[in-house]
Amino acid sequence: MQVLSGRWPTLLLYYLKDGTKRFSELKRDNPTVSHRILSLELRKLEEAGLVRRTAHEGYPLRVDYALTPFGLRLLPLIDAIGNWWSDQAPAAGDAMTAGPELRRGSLPELLLDRV
């Protein structure tokens, strides 16, 4: 459970749910994360067995990231948390809900709005 704590691990798993992505694509999906933090978080997820890193031979070096079967098993939980937040946040009526309208399935926007 410790591996999912923090801001980025859940977002990275969410962005990888559609399939394999390169480092640059993940950086584009998460424009506010630094190169160093993205590398550290991906390494942490890889060590936990949630993400598979594949380095391809050649120049320039190409590295792909994909969810492992273990990581895929977390997706229903991540979606459920996003759905729960979408249902609860408008009812809360506090300062955290101010901003763009929340919609079902928008977990990245929900987490990034908290910067």
Q: What's the story with the biggest beta sheet?
A: 3 strands, antiparallel
How many β strands by DSSP? 3
Poorly predicted runs: 97-105
Under CATH at level 1, the class of the largest domain stands as: Mainly Alpha
Radius of gyration: 15 Å
Strand order in the sheet with the most strands: 1-3-2
Morphology: globular
Cα end-to-end separation: 22 Å
Q: List the domain count as a whole number.
A: 2
Q: What fraction strand? A: 5-15%
* Residues in helices, as a percent range: 40-55%
* Class by alpha and beta content: alpha+beta
Would you mind describing this structure in some detail?
With 115 residues, the protein is an alpha+beta fold. The protein folds into two domains: 2-68, Arc Repressor Mutant, subunit A, CATH 1.10.10.10; 75-112, no CATH class. The protein is 50% helix and 12% strand. It is built from six helices and three strands. It has helices spanning 8-16, 23-29, 35-47, 69-72, 75-92, 107-112, and strands spanning 21-22, 51-56, 62-67. It has a three-stranded antiparallel β-sheet. It is globular, with a radius of gyration of 15 Å.
